[in-house]
Amino acid sequence: MTRTMYQKLLIDLKAEIQYLLILQEEVIETKFI
């Protein structure tokens, strides 16, 4: 695997984790309201 492919994979993973965290926060907020 090339370095650029690895970096792109890492960026995609970070974006996905951030997206999941945002979703999780929204779910928690709706539960407490």
Write the layout of secondary structure elements.
Blueprint: H1 3-32
Q: What shape does the CA trace take?
A: rod-shaped
Output the helix-strand order.
Answer: H
**Percent of residues in helical segments?**
over 70%
Q: Count of helical segments? A: 1
Give the strand content.
Answer: under 5%
Rg, Cα atoms, Å = 14 Å
Got a strand count? Answer: 0
What's the overall average pLDDT, rounded? 89
Ends distance? 47 Å
* Strand-pairing-aware structural class: mainly alpha
Low-confidence stretches: none
Largest sheet: none
What's the number of structural domains?
1
List keywords for this structure.
rod-shaped, mainly alpha, single chain, 33 residues
